[in-house]
Amino acid sequence: MKLRRHFDQIIINIILVVIAVFTFVPLLTLLTLSFKDIDQFNNQPMGLSFPLNFQNYAMAWKFMQDPLWHNIIVGITAPALSISMAAITAFVLARFNFAGRPLLFGVLLLSLLVPNTILFVPLFQLIIQIGAQNTLWALILPYAANQALTIFVTHSFYKDMPSEMFDAAKMDGANTLDSFFYIALPLSTPILSAMAIFQVWLIWNDYAWPSLVANSNEARTAVTGLIYFNDFSRPEPGAGMAAAVLAALPMLVLFIFTMRTFVAGLTAGAIKE
Amino acid sequence: MLTSTHADSPPKPPAPFTRFARSLSRNWQLYILILPSLLFSAIFFYYPITSGFYHSFTYWDIKQTVWVGLENYARLLDDSSTPAAWRNMAVILISNMLIVCIFPLFGAVLVVRLRNAALQYWWRILFVLPIIVPATVTVFVWRWFYGLDGGLNQILRMINLGALGKIWLGEPSYALAAIIFVGFPWVAGLNFLIYVAALQSISQEILDSAKVDGADSFKTFFFIELPLIRNQVLVLITLTFIYYLRSFDAPLIMTNGGPGTAGTLVPGLQMYRAVRDDLDLGYGSAIGMVLFAATLIFTAINFYISRRQAKGESS
Amino acid sequence: MVTGRKTHHRFAVAMSVILILVAACGTATPTQAPPPEATKAPATSAAPAATAAPAATAAPAASPTAAAPAKPVAPVGTAASRPDLKGELVINTWRDLSADPNSPFYTMYLVMKQWETNHPNVKIKYQPMLGTVTDIFGFITTNLRSKTLNDVVMQVFPSAAQLDPDLQYDLTADMAKPNPYSTNKTWREDFPINAVALRDVTVGGKVLMVGTTYVGDFSDTALLYNKDLLDKAGIKELPKTWADFTDSLKKLKAAGIQPYYSPTAGNEAYIFTWQIGMIGDQLLVDSIKACDGQVGEAADGRISQKEAVWCVKKGKWSAKNADVKALFEQMKDFSQYYHEGYLAPPAPGELFSQGKVAYRWIVRINMPVIENSPDVKFKWGSFYLPPLKGTAGTPGGLVHRYASGSQGSGSHFLFIPKTTVEKGKLDLALDLLQYATSPKTEEYWCALQNPTCFEPGSPVEKIFPGNTDKQERYRGFAEPSAANNNRIIGLDVNNAFGQASSVAETKIFQDYFAGTANLDQSLTAYQKMLDQLADNIIRQKPEWEAGKW
Question: Is the CB of B233 inside 8 Å of chain A's CB atoms?
Fold first, then answer.
């Protein structure tokens, strides 16, 4: 009996290994290709070939450093703007009663129903109108406008907070902002950072929008930079692969440092959306 | 003075407008606090969507706007690549909805069945890890995989099936399948994570009592676990649907909608190309509006079904 | 809650780590490689570039310093016309001009650099336009309309469809005045060969761009062949007629060799659209005749955008015409010899230089890509697409070329968007344009070309004396001589409606080649596309009063 149970476990592990091999072959191939010079790339693309060619990374880095930097700027400012506005809004909507509250709540959440691709064309025109094309603002502003999900999630969180906490503070003479900053905000940091990570992830993944409005040295993002780096004649195909590795690397760092929040953020973000 | 929700309840509601004016004068600080959100929403959501709707009836190329009535919509209907684009999208949608029900769930069940907690943890981490790879990078790698000397043909040559090799993205009959095949075996990622979380939340008591009743692993899955995580499956199907309704990164990067006018074209890409290649924003807006309508219809159906199910469960 | 807060801090830590990492790496590697100094050039700089080592032994193009000495780098001795100019001039460039010293683009970079040196108070900032050829044309059009182009734009091969007098600064008045960098009476006189460089960038009498002039007799495009592969297939002579050409393609295919590299997607898809132009020129002769010189345009053998639109509207350029049908059939016949997977964007790695295809078509300014490729380990040279009728090199067999058929095209063009005038930077921009096209700079530019400018009509043997490798590689650009070359800017989508529009055209051809659409369906789609493009242009040009046609 015991042997059979062990046997089950071994079979499961074997199947998982097979799945893992199929899952990781493309990614590992990317990694190995990024160390190949042109001869190795053309003649033995699979597996490692020696000597490893680190020159590829130097070439890729030269092109990718600005795009990566842009991603980091946008990845910090846009979620920061979006989350701070959304948190205050959600707090006010959840904790106070005033005329037009349900209406405003609905107005702010309606965009959850509309996939942003549909806004693509008019947003493009808007970005042109305000002269933001090919600047980082073309990314920061629309991304910062992505607040509905955070409002929705934090609204229910703030609503469920016991009102005694706020009543006590009010007795002590705290105003709206005080009770937000000293009571609500500290308690909601986990949920807010989860939402922030979800937004960073979305921004890092976005290709179509930046490739349309941020096609300049001042604004190109990592994944669009990767495609541009590859899609015209270059002498070293391996360097193109190295650029892909570089484009994914910062997310790995973020993941390692914030694993729990990262996972929580993506799960919450994906399900609620 | 600000009024807290729980503090007071007005005795009788005055006329809406007076009530609003009074609330405004009393609670102006609150309105100011939510003003930034409202402004962003107005500028980056309500304005574009109105503008998109209006401009879908115009010829629009940044330089000028000319009212053309329903011409853009007529052109969309008349365009021979439109039905193909919607057909391609349907194929992508249906296959991905099937994929999301089978592969990540299978992986999740396997991992949950592991009894060694440490092993389970590391397998979970391993299969979650690929979410950090931006979709564009994945698509980029697979584009190389599908090339003449790309990974797929190399593997085929290794196992002596080199004759089957082809330029996968250059064949009208394979290109769409190749795009769907990206990410095989589709286990790792967010879907896997959600399934694992759902499966692990099933109480051990239920599973133990099933075991006492003599249910084997398969029976446990189909008669106990699957019904309990049905909601997550449905949510993931809905999410997949919405995602592929709007996503066109893979065809854009791998084939630009080709080969031919409609090989891997989807409506989102049709819209994108109207903007990028032709600077025909009016036509692009019309495609966007049709996509919007499709989303609304789907959301309504989805809402109706879940309502009916909720009713069925409660009765 | 506690764990939650901890992870929150971890997030902050992670972000700062990323920040620090990037900042650290950013300082370690400077953003821009130090620009190669013109003065570092060896004393032998006057020697023609022809002495460059054979490509097989040359260092990879990736290392800029290795190949640099091959270029003659002479200082430009023209003083600043207005040393008082100051400010910053931002230039949109065709990709990164400074990236590769072997590239012909590099000369333009050196010219701009020199202009900057001449004006101590002026700073140039480069803003490379990246992506596929189609992407870049799309970028220029979109940003010109949305007024987000920078102060000066440098591009190659402008199409008639790009010219927009509403948005581009009109240089006509300045052309009639003297160029401060020159002793000629007018700026226009500075342009060699009867200002041929201005011919394709003038619309309705307005000069909207200026271009460099390649004095010589070279064409912009040619066909490369891999001698080893031709030998293998038993092809002894380069084809001079279309029948010979098809025959050679057949032989190559029979020998299991991929005959012809012609991607219809990806960065080099323009090769295919240009070929439609070259073959279309020979087939649509009657239609072109019927369209040329209409609606008040000059009958100059070149079809302007206005003529093309008129033609579509009047049904003179129509899928119903037998010649358009013939074009489709001709291209399909040709396509059976294209390389494997020509319907998909090509994978990284250039097929011709790897010795995997026998022929490929190339634009002259891209020759260094092949010449400097470490992959090329075979004998190769160039010829040209034989005419459909007659024998190439004889009066009965004019060779049809894309872009400028022969002498004159320097390929590099500069223009000023009107927004520059509004920004108050016209002085700077104009000064740069005048400097870049002054006779002295022209001389310098010519000296740096590969090969240097030469007496029109010279045979390759005279252009590259003693260097048989180079002679073979450039023979296809020099022969047949100008008299037997022809390039009428005819009825083709790329020319009339722009490179970006030709994406749609290519896709229609792809459907026909792959068999997913038959000829009738393809022609219907083609007609629909023409109608739509023409309608859109008419809406953009209310001044044409197309309603009255």
Answer: no
Bigger pLDDT: C250 vs B209: C250
CB atoms within 10 A of CB A251: 23
Q: What is the pLDDT of residues B281-296, one digit of tens each?
A: 999 999 999 999 988 8
Name which of C363, C361, C353 is nearest C223 in CA terms. Answer: C361
pLDDT of residue A171: 78
Model confidence at A149: pLDDT above 80: yes
Note whether A187 contacts C1, CB cutoff 8 Å: yes
The pLDDT mean for chain B works out to 86
For B75-314, CATH gives: 1.10.3720.10
In the block, which residue shows the tokens 């008299």?
C483
In contact, C501 and C134? CB cutoff 8 Å: no
How far apart, in whole angstroms, are the C-alpha atoms of residue C522 and residue C504? 12
Which chain B positions have a beta carbon within 8 Å of A141's beta carbon? 44
Q: Does the distance separating the beta carbons of C60 and A38 come in below 8 Å?
A: yes
Q: How far is B274 from chain C (nearest CA, A)?
A: 10
| Eight-class DSSP state of C259 | E
Secondary structure of residue B80 in the 3-state scheme: coil
Q: In angstroms, rounded to a whole number, what is the distance separating the alpha carbons of residues C350 and C355?
A: 9
Backbone angles phi, psi at B65, to 5 degrees: -125, 120
pLDDT score at B13: 54
Smallest Cα distance from C252 to chain A, Å: 23
Judge: C344–B175 Cβ closer than 8 Å, yes or no: yes
Q: Which domains does chain A have, with CATH numbers?
A: 54-272 (1.10.3720.10)
Using omega within 30 degrees of 0 as the cis cutoff, is the peptide bond preceding C439 cis? no
Per-residue DSSP letter, C355:
T
Taking the Cβ of residue A166 and every Cβ of chain B, the question of whether any pair is shorter than 8 Å is answered with yes
pLDDT digits (tens, 9 = 90+) for B188-232: 888 898 899 889 888 888 888 887 887 787 888 888 888 888 888
Domain boundaries, chain B: 2-55, 75-314
Whether the pLDDT of residue C482 is over 90: the answer is no
Could you tell me which of A101, A146, A91 has the C-alpha nearest to residue B43? A146
Number of Cβ within 10 Å of residue A238's Cβ equals 26
Rounded to whole angstroms, the Cα distance separating C169 from C419 reads 9
Q: Do B246 and A110 touch (CB under 8 A)?
A: no
Which is more confident, C489 or A153? Answer: A153
Provide the mean pLDDT of chain A.
Answer: 87
In the DSSP assignment, the letter for residue B224 is I
Q: Which chains touch C (3 or more CB pairs under 8 A)?
A: A, B
**Average pLDDT estimate for A127-136:** 90
| Per-residue model confidence (pLDDT) at position C442 | 86
